[in-house]
Amino acid sequence: MNLEQLHQLFLAHPTICTDTRKISKDCLFFALKGPNFNGNEFADRALENGAAYALVDEEKFNTSEKHILVEDVLTTLQKLSTYHRKQSKAKVVSLTGSNGKTTSKELIHSVLSQSYNTIATLGNLNNHIGVPLTLLSITNETEIAIVEMGANHQKEIDFLCGIAQPDYGYITNFGKAHLEGFGGIEGVIKGKSELYDHLIENNKHIFMNADDPIQLEKLGSYVKKIGYSTENPQYFNINYVDADPFVQFTFEGLKVKTQLIGRYNFTNCCAAVVIGKYFNVPTAKIKAALESYQPKNNRSQIIEKNGLEIILDAYNANPSSMKVAIENLKGMQSDFKTLILGDMFELGEDAKKEHQGIVDLATSLGFSNVFLVGENFSRTQTDFHQFDSYDSFESYLKGNVPRKGTVLIKGSRGMALERTLDLF
């Protein structure tokens, strides 16, 4: 079966499943492989559970006309998604960056969906499997597809661009994330910039933060760039007001009051504004979309519980996002402030230095009620409370729960610090 024939089969069965626990009737099952599983072994179960066909890449599992043997299931999924994207009239807006990708994607989706039939990456399915699945969710009605791209090493963004072939792109920022895989901050800049490199090479449009010196340097005199700025009149002006706790800003004479905490979310809002303006979404609808958006999935959520104001930002963390979250709490009006910080992962040889840097920052800002959780934080030089595991922290906190003020909970995904909520 060639790619065109497979695409026709997909159009007849436009739901893709890769997990037999989530099979929907008449779907196509792609038997993907992982470090600890072989999807081929579950192909028969997928068919029994209602899949129309199962794509496999091992001959011994190709046992009926309902099985489709391909050379490599993952590669086939990726090629099918690119073919489908080429057949579609939808415009593809791709974004990447060290921090704020998913929030920016959700905000852009919220704005553009005011005027267009829009789809976007579900959650953070932004890798070599998630990007193809997003592209395959494009329908005949889709006008704009917003595709988030994640990466932890060089050439990954370049590879994803080859799959998605974006018409537009935006990089949120360049921060200290995945330092181990990228090889330091310069590696991060090089790796994330692969999106801009791809767009420039193909003469496509780029959205940019014109207040970011790295982006200005990267894009130079490139003509097809659309930027926002708080100060440069050459670009679309958006003015920051404050964030105590929610971000407020103005543009074109309108004041926008969001439900997002932290100044660090200001640039995420700016991207949604400038992209909305480019696509001619009415200004009033941009304002309405941003004001109605509510963060979820442990990202900068404010939760009121037993007299406490809890900032739950436990979806992920790196030195850059940790720094701005702590600085944001410092600037908030509160009678008592508590930090609960979990280890930051994928920092490689920089782990010791970066964790100590966060501790030093908290000290310099005058925080006193600080709980540090994880092996890396437990090794830092400090007088703060330190715990080498979540279990030891939980045991302590049960008898020492803060009773007032504001609590910031932040750590890498692997720390799962949202568990702390049950203790308050």
From TrEMBL:
The gene is murF. Pathway: Cell wall biogenesis; peptidoglycan biosynthesis. ATP binds at G97, S98, N99, G100, K101, T102, T103. This is UDP-N-acetylmuramoyl-tripeptide--D-alanyl-D-alanine ligase. One of its GO terms (molecular function) is ligase activity. Involved in cell wall formation. Catalyzes the final step in the synthesis of UDP-N-acetylmuramoyl-pentapeptide, the precursor of murein. It comes from Flagellimonas spongiicola. Residues 299-380 form the Mur ligase C-terminal domain. It catalyses: D-alanyl-D-alanine + UDP-N-acetyl-alpha-D-muramoyl-L-alanyl-gamma-D-glutamyl-meso-2,6-diaminopimelate + ATP = UDP-N-acetyl-alpha-D-muramoyl-L-alanyl-gamma-D-glutamyl-meso-2,6-diaminopimeloyl-D-alanyl-D-alanine + ADP + phosphate + H(+). InterPro entries: Mur-like_cat_sf (IPR036565), Mur_ligase_C (IPR004101), Mur_ligase_C_dom_sf (IPR036615), Mur_ligase_cen (IPR013221), Mur_ligase_N (IPR000713), MurCDEF_CellWall_CoF430Synth (IPR051046), MurE/MurF_N (IPR035911), UDP-N-AcMur_synth (IPR005863). Its main location: cytoplasm. Residues 16-60 form the Mur ligase N-terminal catalytic domain. Keywords: ATP-binding, Cell cycle, Cell division, Cell shape, Cell wall biogenesis/degradation, Cytoplasm, Ligase, Nucleotide-binding, Peptidoglycan synthesis. Its EC number is 6.3.2.10. Residues 96-275 form the Mur ligase central domain. It is found in: Cytoplasm. Belongs to the MurCDEF family. MurF subfamily. It comes from the Bacteria.
